[in-house]
Each structure stands twice: as C-alpha cells, then as structure tokens.
Amino acid sequence: MIIKGLGYLGVTVAELAEWESYGAGLVGAQIIDKTDDQLKLRIDDHYSRINVHKADQPGIAYIGWDVGSEPALQQAIEVIEGLGMSWRDGTQEECQARKVLRMVKLQDPGENEIELHYGASIGHQFKPSRDMGEFVTGELGMGHVLLLTPNFDAIMEFYSRMGFRLSESIYMDALQGHAHFLHCNHRQHSLALGAAPHNVLGHLMLEIKSMIDVGKAYDIAMYEEMKITMTMGQHVNDKVVSFYTMSPSGFDLELGAGGLVIEDLDSWSVGQYEDISYWGHHGGLRNRPSPEQFSN
Questions:
Q1: What is the rounded CA–CA span in Å between residue 79 and residue 85?
Q2: What average pLDDT does the chain have?
C-alpha cells in the first residue's frame, strides 16, 4: 500500500474563533500556533492534525495522506503520471508550514487538493483542552474521511491504485447507491467514497479511546446546542459508537470510540450491508429502519 494513513486536514473558515471554540470545547484538541490568519489543532504526538485557515468561505483546503517514505512517494508519482494526472512538488514554505520533509500536491478525481507527504514532525506532547483521554491514531492514521463526487469510478481507480483495499459496500438511500469503504492500514476504513452530484467532503472522523469521553462530548454538544447532524449510534461496519456535528467549515465531524481493527489484512473478506448503523445515527445518511428490523 502506497498511502499509509490519513495524515492531516486543512480547512477554511471566515472566523477562526469558531474553530477555536469548537475544536477546544467539543473535540478537546490542543490549540497551537494561533495567528491572525490560521490556527492549528493537535490531537496526538504529531505537531498538528487540523490546520485552520482564515478565508472568505468555509470549506476544505487540502487533505494530507502520509506515504511514509521517499520510495513510496516515488511509487505514488508513477501512479499519478500513469493515470495522466498533473502534480507538483510542495514548496519549501509549504513543507515547513505542514511540518513535513517532502510533499507532492495534486487534485484527485473528486477535485480535492491532495498532499502526499512523508516525514511528519512527531514526538510532541498532547495536552487536551478539556478533561479527556487520548485519540486513536499512531499507525492507524488520524482517522477517516468520506468523499462524495460525481466522478466515482475515477476516484475509486485513483485510490485503489494508491493501495487502498475495499473493506465493504453499504447501500445508502440518500446516495441512491452504494458507498465504498476502503482501508490502507489496520483501521477498518480510512476512506469512504460515494457518488453524488457535487464534489464534497462528507465528514471527518476522529476516534477517541474512551467511550466515556465520547459521551461527555455528546453532552457538550447537547448543552451548547450545537448542530447535531446524526445522533449517537453504532455503525455496522467498523462497530464505532459515535455522533456527528456540523463543523465550522461546513462538513460533519464524527467523534466515536470502539473502532474495529483488522488483525489480518490478507484474510479480510469483503461484505456488503443494507444500512450504515445497527441503531441510532438518526438524520444524515442513515436509511430509515424498516419495521422488521425491530421484530424478533
């Protein structure tokens, strides 16, 4: 697998204070490097995982995928050129800003700005902004993202060529088709892809070690009257118990615990599901449960 995991995310927002309040108050991230134009959020020993940039419109600026080494980056470039896609090296200033040794920049078929990189700055101390424990990262990467695009076949080919393997497929009424969930390490999925009329980042998922900490975050979201886009529930595929809120950048952020780890990647068997959750997760992409799902 060329890509080793989700490395970081760059987002935009008109008022940085919105992400400072949301990131610290709900997520529990440590706020670092705050300036008039940006702030960075730390959730583990990486220098930062979420980089927030001041802009006129909220949205996604870039997605950083960690390839781990120079040989892997060269493999990625061969794939990119083989697909007829353009790319460029990240400048010294861009690499310094992301705290990586080298990066390659390109657009994936969903028009997402992608930064393939290696040599992230690690070994930093994480001090959560509220009373909570650790996030699940390390070799599993930062978490996962859901990308929606009308160029579904092309984006599937791109990420498959980058080494992602299919974990399972789930039919979603909201998409009028299947979403595919893919892994590049032992996390059950680091990437989900779905067909939609427009290119959009559906959500970012961050996993917390303690279910109690997830429950506390849910209480905060309720008490602070944040926009909860999907209520607490449990997913059928990665077994995560989680909830979703609308981030200040306009995409959903999922906080959960109890994610499935694939012990043996070579023996994984691909499956398909008819719904995304066993229970809960009302709103958003969940199919409306049928009456027989509640019968004995």
A1: 9
A2: 96
- CATH number of the domain encompassing residue 109: 3.10.180.10
Q: Express each pLDDT in 136-154 by its tens digit.
A: 999 999 999 999 999 999 9
**Residue finishing a domain among 70, 85, 118:** 118
Distance CA 168, CA 88 (A): 33
**Residue 126 near residue 47 (C-beta atoms within 8 A):** no
Are residue 142 and residue 113 in the same domain, yes or no?
no
Contact 231, 277 (CB under 8 A): no
Residue 214 lies in a domain: yes
Cβ burial of 217 (10 Å; 0-12, 13-18, 19+) is: buried
* pLDDT tens track for 216-246: 999 999 999 999 999 999 999 999 999 999 9
Segments forming the whole domain that contains residue 238? 138-294
Are 87 and 184 found together in one domain?
no
At 295 the pLDDT is 52
Q: Which of 120, 73, 116 is nearest to 100 (CA)?
A: 120
Strand partners, 114: 63, 106
Q: How far apart are CA 222 and CA 225, in angstroms?
A: 5
Sheet containing strand 165-172, strands side by side: 271-273, 165-172, 177-183, 191-195, 144-149, 200-207, 252-257, 241-246, 228-235, 277-280
The one-letter code for the residue type at 170 is I
Would you say 233 and 241 are in contact if contact means Cβ atoms under 8 Å apart? yes
* pTM tops 0.70, yes or no: yes
